[in-house]
């Protein structure tokens, strides 16, 4: 009976050790982390753009026209 308990304990320790090292390897792998950061940054920028567009619609649109005209001027200056 004691021998079986020792064998079970060793099997359990071996399986837990292999599970630990398997999970440790996955957590240490940082592939794709920068992609997630860039996607998060893009989502924040898009949310800010939608908030700004909504605020400009309610303020009468003068600000949006000014921004659009300045952007057009900048693009025209790049082409020349």
Helix-strand layout with pairing:
Layout: H1 2-28, H2 33-58, H3 62-79
Task: Summarize this structure briefly.
By secondary structure, the chain is mostly helical. It has helices at residues 2-28, 33-58, 62-79. The chain has two domains: 1-30; 31-80.
Give a quick set of tags describing it.
mainly alpha, 3 helices, 80 residues, 2 domains, single chain
Walk me through this protein's architecture.
With 80 residues, the chain is mainly alpha-helical. The protein has 2 domains: 30 residues; 50 residues. It is built from 3 helices and no strands. The relative contact order is 0.05. The model has no long low-confidence stretch (mean pLDDT 78).
Proportion of helical residues: over 70%
What is the SS-derived class?
mainly alpha
Estimated share of beta-strand residues: under 5%
Rg, alpha carbons: 29 Å
By DSSP, the count of extended strands is: 0
Shape: rod-shaped
Instruction: Please give the domain count.
Output: 2
Q: How much is the average pLDDT? A: 78
Number of helices: 3
Low-confidence stretches: none
Distance between the termini: 90 Å
Give helix and strand order, one letter per element, not per position. Answer: HHH
Taking the sheet with the most strands, its summary is: none
């Amino acid at each position: 009976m004691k021998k079986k308990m020792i064998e079970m304990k060793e099997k359990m320790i071996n399986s837990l050790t292999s599970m630990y090292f398997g999970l440790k390897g996955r957590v240490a792998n940082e592939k794709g982390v920068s992609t997630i950061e860039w996607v998060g940054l893009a989502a924040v920028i898009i949310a800010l753009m939608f908030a700004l567009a909504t605020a400009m619609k309610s303020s009468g649109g003068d600000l949006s026209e000014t921004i659009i005209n300045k952007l057009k001027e900048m693009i025209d200056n790049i082409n020349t």
